[in-house]
């Protein structure tokens, strides 16, 4: 039942529960630079709860819902009395695709159309944000390769059982999962993630004074291995979602990406906080494609 509890306050990209020493998240790191930061989730909650704040992500969401969720989020920000809508800078994290690749792709009549569908959703969302949310940096973070978790050998039995429900396109008999079908979904997943990188670099989102889009690639070569064994401490009870430790490592990897110039960004994560970047005198800012 704990899987139905949404620990939004501990989310790697928008959780702000406690402080960075107890919960290493991007907002808790940013609060060290700006104590007046607002919008991060306070604690366990669902998207319609006040504690969720500007975290408008929906459980089970797929790419086609991005424009709708973006519009809801803009309304929340616009109507929040703490926000100077025209003057305050906003930073968004867009990460979606796990449900598309795990449970949606195999229901389509033309599964190979999924990357193009995703492209249309991304473009519609980004154009809406560009035109309706001033002073905004959008970071697109691709979901990790699904096979990283569902294809793990010798995983606990409870994980095997839950993966049948969480990722039925890849695991189990519901959609006649086979080695060949998994290879097909993997190819589509590669294209899906490639679309995100391509869209982030489109000319229509470049050279703008108050809007930027950047693809942050820290999930590209994500590994769960610790030596020759899977480090299950990075994963939750279902071996699919991240544990708090996993969220902390994700937050550090994300933070490092923000301070790394395009073309030189890390494409994985390091155990613990062995690498924790800080703004430099030469570049005391978050990198975009235009300022690097």
TrEMBL record:
InterPro entries on file: GDSL, Phospholipase_B, PLB1, SGNH_hydro_sf
Swiss-Prot/TrEMBL GO biological process terms: phospholipid metabolic process
GO-annotated molecular function: phospholipase activity
Protein name per its UniProtKB record: SGNH hydrolase-type esterase domain-containing protein
